[in-house]
Amino acid sequence: MRRGARRWAAGALLLALLTGCGAGSDVRSFLDDTFDEQSESGDTSTYLAAAPVAAAASQITGAVPPAARATDAGTEYLRYDDDIVVVSPASGGSTVRVEDLDGPYRDGTYAYLGQGFTPGSPAATDDDDDDVK
């Protein structure tokens, strides 16, 4: 009986860990639950955040850590596995735009942001740079 109780407890713990790891990992779900959606077109959604850029970006990254983060001219860029989130200044707060990486990311739009934003390499390394000619 004791062995069965341990197995049950271990199984319950494993299930809780797996559920916890998956929960909150989707940045789109977090944005939907947290900010007011202003528009949607295809794979791109735009939200309004009452907080300024740095605070809104910190709120997002605190809930769903990005694979890469960069700042350029007062705009925050957050790269996730399948999406890029752009937090930019707006009247009364900031605008949060999420779009699929298959479009502008893949064709080099965000390459100027550096490592983690280089086209073709979501996590650019020195080895990746050696292959580019």
Automatic annotation (TrEMBL):
Keywords: Signal
Region (Disordered): 112-133
Alphabetized PROSITE patterns for the sequence: PROKAR_LIPOPROTEIN
Domain of life the protein comes from: Bacteria
Annotated signal peptide: 1-23
Protein name (record): DUF4247 domain-containing protein
Organism whose genome encodes this protein: Pseudonocardia broussonetiae
